[in-house]
Amino acid sequence: MGGGENARDKSAAAAEAAQRREKLNTQNLSVQAAEALKERQKKDDLLGKIAHLYREAGREEPFGLASCTMEQLVKHYKYAQTFRGENSLSKQ
């Protein structure tokens, strides 16, 4: 009869361990999802700023800009900021 209780204890311990692993995986997934969302928001914000600079300069933004990496977008944003200098020169 002691064997039945031991098997139940092992089964309960295994079930508890599985629940702990599942909870840990869910928390990690939530952290990863939050990081991905934050990165996406940064990218969308930068895309909006770039689009604004292009509209302000009366230019069309390049096709496929949304598929760029953050590093590429930062470089493009710096480039697009130079349009402001061109506009002030052409208005004089």
Count every beta strand, where a strand is a DSSP E run of 2 or more residues: 0
By secondary-structure content and strand pairing, the structural class works out as: mainly alpha
- Continuous helix count: 2
Percent of residues in helices comes to over 70%
- Contiguous uncertain segments of 5+ residues: none
Tally of distinct domains: 1
Radius of gyration: 27 Å
- Biggest sheet overview: none
**What is the approximate shape?**
rod-shaped
Q: What distance separates the N and C termini? A: 98 Å
Fraction in beta strands: under 5%
Describe the structure.
The protein has helices spanning 2-57, 70-90. With 92 residues, it is mainly alpha-helical. It has one domain. The radius of gyration is 27 Å and the shape is rod-shaped. It starts with a helix and ends with a helix. The model has no long low-confidence stretch (mean pLDDT 83).
Comma- or semicolon-separated keywords:
92 residues; mainly alpha
What is this structure's SSE topology?
Elements: H1 2-57, H2 70-90
Briefly, what is this?
With 92 residues, this protein is an all-alpha fold.
